[in-house]
Structure formats: structure tokens, C-alpha cells
Amino acid sequence: MLLILTASTALAGGKHLFILSGQSNMAGMKPEVSFTPTVTKAFGKENIIVTKSAYSGASIRSWAKSNHEFPPPTRGRVPKVRGHFYETLIKSVKAAIKDQSLKTVTFIWMQGESDLNNTAYDAYLKELLEQLQTDLAFKKINLVIGRISDAGLDVQKRLKGRLTIRRIQQEFAEAHPRGAWVDTDDLNDRKVEDTVVNDLHYTREGYLTLGARFAEKAIALIKSPVKEGE
Fold first, then answer.
1. Per the CB 3.0–4.6 Å rule, which of 54, 147, 152, 180 could disulfide with 27?
2. Domain 2-223 belongs to what architecture?
């Protein structure tokens, strides 16, 4: 588990809350290096709260509390208790925002490699957002999804699952009225002798770029005009 909290003093009108979560590629990203400086420049240090909670090798089933696959899966990344990582996440978020008002909430999600056999990934994403909306009493949550990279697309094993998760993540973000997604295909390129390998995890420079891209998408969502009816 990796947990980072950055909070500032009270702000009239509320603060911008950023919740970063996911599995190993979120764990490998250091928000204080590229993400937090970018949102700080946009909104001011006193106006932001950044939280991060990430776990390596974890299925989205460890965040969503319900089962959406029928019959329920018995193989793969299936936690004994659904949603147990979410409980840690929401506890840390509530501690960070205690006695403070919120102007915006942005959820940033980098996960999916552990769900290549998951037949209901979109349903779990929907439930995860609904859990945050309920627990934070904040309906209009911005969403930024990091689409899993092209690692493994050159091998047949589990190719269908990789393509499915990539498609769902992109479509879910585009369908969300306050959503966006980030491309990560260029962040995992490692050169081995004369061959470029698309690794599962990103390079040092890749993580820096990932944090900056997440921040830029989040800022754009916050600053973009809200459509009527959203």
C-alpha cells in the first residue's frame, strides 16, 4: 500500500480534492513530483487537497463492494472481501478533508491489468464512482482514467481481455459527462539492446509524464464549462 496526503488551510468557497487510486502503475507514480506541482500552479497550494492510495496487483473488485459477474468468479484476482481497499481509500480521504468544504472532486484511476478476465469491468467502475458520490455527499465528480498501456498486445495470450479493458476504459470516460482518459502507450517503452519492449510498468520518465498528464486532464475538467443538466 502507498498512501500520500497533501492538505492545505481553509479556503472560502471550498477546495479542489484530487483522489488518486489504482494498482501498481499508480503506486509507481509520485504525485509530489509532477501531479501536485501542476495542480498547485493552476489553483494555488492553499486551494488543493491531494490523496493517493494504491496497491500492486489488485483487481477493481477490491474497490467495488458488490459482485457484478454471474456466476461470481472463483479464479484470478478475487478478494475474499469485496471493496476492502476502498475502505482504506475513503478513510484517508475523509481524514484529509475533515472540517473543510469542497468545491470540486476529481477521481483519477490507473488500474485494469489485473482484470483481463473481468466480464463486468464497466459495472464495477460505475459502482466505484457511486460509492464515492455517496460517501463524499458529492454527486458531480470529475473522472480521469489512465487507459492501460499496450503491454502484451503483441502476444495472443489474454489479448482479448487487454483490448476489452482498454475499450471499456476509453468508452466509460468519454461517456461520463465529466470524464476524460489518458493514453499511456508511450510511457512503458524500454530499450533492450536494439529492441523496444513494451513493459507492464512505466519508465521513470514515464511516471513523471503520467502525473503531468493526469493533472492536465483534471485541470481541464475543472475549468471547462459545465453543460446544462449535468
1. 54
2. 3-Layer(aba) Sandwich (3.40)
